Inverse folding.
């Protein structure tokens, strides 16, 4: 009697653990390509942004094309 109860509890526990792993694997976001963690400063507004998102010209970085254009008009 107790042996059968123990087996039922053990099987239930194993099923519960497996379902937890399945749920966790479905919820985890897919891995994406690693982005650069380097930060640069916009020459125009002095805000910081990831280098991958910056508009760059002649070693200078800008947060958007408009700031690049404004910088070129000033200098």
């Amino acid at each position: 009697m107790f042996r059968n109860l123990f087996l039922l509890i053990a099987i239930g526990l194993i099923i519960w653990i497996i379902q937890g792993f399945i749920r966790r694997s479905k919820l985890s976001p897919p891995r994406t390509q690693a982005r650069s963690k380097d930060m640069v400063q916009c020459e125009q507004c002095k805000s910081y942004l990831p280098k991958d998102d910056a508009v760059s010209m002649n070693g200078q970085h800008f947060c958007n094309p408009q700031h690049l254009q404004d910088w070129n008009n000033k200098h």
